[in-house]
Amino acid sequence: MLKGFYTAASGMLTQQRRTEMLTNNMANANTPGYKADQSSVRSFPEMLLNRMEDETIPNGNGKKMPSFAQVGSLHTGVYIQETNPLFKQGDIKQTDLKTDLALVHGEMPIDEETGVAGALFFTVQNGNGDVRYTRNGNFTLDSQGYLTTSGGYYVLDGNNERIQLDNDQFTVSDNGVILQDAAQVAQIGIAYSNDPAGQLVKEGDGLFSANAELTNAYDEDDVFFTIKQGYIENSNVDAAQTMTEMLSVYRSFEANQKVLQAYDQSLNKTVNEVGKIG
């Protein structure tokens, strides 16, 4: 088996997975609060090949002992090491709907070890009581007056309680306080993560789960944000850049495919021509 098969095949698989990731980003370019995925590609460890054979000992007894002859190094190609969301804030779009909320943050604290900026999220809950986090502020009121996401998750307040309103005639201040009939009803729950890539796992539908409960953003002195009513946050997918990356990935896949075809033709000649017995 020719060693280049491993490199070309792993390259094709890697580019195929990158294509799937970029295609999913493009499909969600208009999804409110969507965070684009980005991948990191890494090469497999290089291996050293040795050939084991028997070597006769020159002592007249004809005894043999194993010996090793170096064949050369083997590059086994590349793979996608991990895929992480890009938590950069998307553009803010005005909708004039009272149930639409956009989370606009200022400059976030940066972790000194990782160099990653923190991120803010709305806190939501499903019917089983499982807490999730999202940037999609396209909310609505259900039949019982609970403020929910478009997927039916309950929006929580700062005390992790569900928010119930009489109707959609309410106002939300910049610090998340909900007022209805001049009375304070609740305060929108905002969670803060100082390491979103390490703490959060993407689940789909704009939701993230955390390996531990995130802190309350209102308790963080160095975290600044505002909540804008009648606005939503757009996806942070850069359509032009994503299309450029897709073309680059396609060319890389095609190049690896041609290498694989060349090796296949070489093997075909070896089996059917070189190895032919006259």
Automatic annotation (TrEMBL):
Biological-process GO terms, alphabetical: bacterial-type flagellum-dependent swarming motility
One GO CC term on file: bacterial-type flagellum basal body
Cell location: Bacterial flagellum basal body
Domain Flagellar basal-body/hook protein C-terminal intervals: 228-272
Domain of life: Bacteria
Family membership noted in the UniProt record: Belongs to the flagella basal body rod proteins family.
Record's protein name: Flagellar hook-basal body protein
